[in-house]
# Entry
Amino acid sequence: MLCPRCEQGCILKAKVKAINVHFLICDECESFWFNVKDIGINNFYDYGSYMEEKNCCQYGMS
Ligand SMILES: [Zn+2]
# Structure
């Protein structure tokens, strides 16, 4: 799936190991979403600031 935000990256399924939460992330711009149906240009989360907020720094592809 192509990222709607940067139109270059692929949307990948990933998981935050520390908090066991699945999400979808763009491998190019690191926008992310929690549900496939939520993927859109206006409602993405920024990976860096989200992880800072949650105090996590790693995710793994699943
Ligand atoms: Zn992107």
Q: What stands out?
A: The beta strands are 11-16, 21-26, 31-33, 45-46, 60-61. The longest strand covers residues 11-16.
